[in-house]
Amino acid sequence: MFKKRCLFVWLTSLLAVLLVLAGCSGSTSKEPNPSKNANPKNQSLAKKEGNSLTIAIKDNLVSMDPQDTNDTLSGSIQSTLLEGLVGFDKDMKMIPVLAESYKASKDAKEITFNLRKGIKFHDGAPFNAKAVKVNIDRVANPDNKLKRYSMFELVEKTEAIDDYTFKVTLKKPFGAMLNNFAHPAARIMSPKAIKKYGKDVATHPVGTGPFKFSEWDQSDHLTVVKNPDYWQAGLPKVDDIKFKPVPENGARVAMLQTGEADFIYPIPTEQAAQINGKNGIVVENKPSIVARYMSMNTTKKPFNDVRVRQAINYAINKEAFLKVVYRGYGSEMDSIIPEGLQFYSKQTPYPYDLEKAKKLLKEAGYENGFETKVWGANNSDAMKAMEFIQQQLSQVGIKVNVVPMESGTLSDKIWSVQNAKDAEVELYYGGWSSSTGDADWGIRPLLAGDSAPPTSYNVSYYENKKVDELIDAGLQTADQEKRKEAYAEMQEIIWKDAPWAYLMVEDTMAGKKNYLEGVYLLPDGALSASEAEIKR
After folding, report:
1. Residue 425 in contact with residue 298, Cβ under 8 Å?
2. Do 470 and 486 form a contact (C-beta atoms < 8 A)?
3. Whose C-alpha in 48, 147, 199, 279 is 20 to 30 A from the C-alpha of 436?
4. Which helix (H) or strand (E) covers residue 230, if one does?
């Protein structure tokens, strides 16, 4: 009964939005920023007992091994436990972390890091250059078959010059390599823990961060506790943090309203303005570099025909998608990467044109459409998005069966495929945040010919020789202008090839109690909770 009622409400909302959009043109306007409506800063602080936090998240966690994790959510929790040599601040600007300083050679083949002294891992092992070497050697070894191998496959040699100097030499020039070291995949784990637990280090993470791993009940929560010996003075400021997966949007919001949770993300966009400023709640939304798209398996009929893929892009009303699914909190995609990434190049969007879509399908031999299925996560937002796509494509005769999956199951069925011919995926609704801030990581892992699972994340199994040549050209120079030219040309080619249905770039959306400070979302959608503090 509940599901039927929700579906009726959703379809009613969809119809209303489509009727409005049918009579308008121009860019999509979002609802006013909720933080400006209720003026929550004028509220008195909500009441909070104790010094523990609960953060409700939308999906189950997959792994606490940063080198074998490909989801932003798991990486966010890892950030409380593990640290890298370098990282990003809240504006995605690179900052030193476990390294005091770093220097790249002019030929973009060597990077030398000078490490901080006197730091220990949670298990008492010393943090030094040898520890860094163990981690980078581990992820750069193809035999280990770790999910983040592609980020470090260019590593030719690592050296512990002395206890606190680490040097990496690349096989060829790569101007974005320092950005890769700022990525969560380069966070450093205790070599002692790696040796002790092997692959099981994914459930026994040991780092240098402000919190220590406490427990992980995979059916309910993961808890981290205060590290009293943390190297940064004054941190951490809370005793423990419980991360609780809550896929259903309404349940997450209810937890924030009652105080069962202190911070939740994402906030369901349809409730953002409604709850902001009430019950001590502050809603925050900011532009992100998180792209939402639907990939198409280009090795399977009918998606091996570019006309079908383009038709799908014409058949989906992106403006309506943004309104219905995200309440306007975001922007329509106008390239294969978001505007916030280095070397972004704007393309001409596919307009909503059902007649054009039908014409292309007829030319491809699918005048009467076809039946297919779309895979995606089982959280409320993903299911709403897939149901919207289902409704839109039905208008051109494409019957889409929606198949939501729990995150672990989805990960296994998509990313663990060993051979492209065994891939069952047809359509996949998902997203990507380029957590290096560079165009390379927004394109190569998803669209290079040699990036198909399990090596990387090209779930479209897309391959274009010219694109691959341009990707190589972008990697092999440190000249910023030459890199810019290569990425501009490849964006134009891929946009026309349409291995994805290009949907939108979302805003980051989070809700918190007004006594909480130091917890925020980065532009890549990652959560930072290391500086969490409860104001009294």
Report:
1. no
2. yes
3. 199
4. none
CATH 3.10.105.10 fits 2-15+287-507, yes or no: yes
Beta bridge partners of 371: 399
The domains of the chain are located at: 2-15+287-507, 83-199
Helical axes 380-394 vs 318-326, angle rounded to 10°: 150
Work out the number of other CB atoms within 10 angstroms of the CB of residue 469. Answer: 13
Assigned token pair, 64: 């606490």
Distance CA 211, CA 445 (A): 31
Report CA 465 to chain centroid distance, whole Å: 27
CATH number of 83-199: 3.90.76.10
Provide the pLDDT confidence category of residue 24 given band limits of 50, 70 and 90: very low
Among 256, 287, 242, residue whose Cα is nearest residue 525: 287
Question: What is d(CA 342, CA 196) in angstroms, rounded to the nearest whole number?
Answer: 40
User: Is the model's pLDDT at 505 over the cut of 50?
Assistant: yes
3-state secondary structure at position 306: helix
The DSSP-derived string for 459-472 is TT----HHHHHHHH
Cα–Cα distance measured from residue 176 to residue 440, given in angstroms and rounded to the nearest whole number: 8
pTM for the whole structure: 0.72
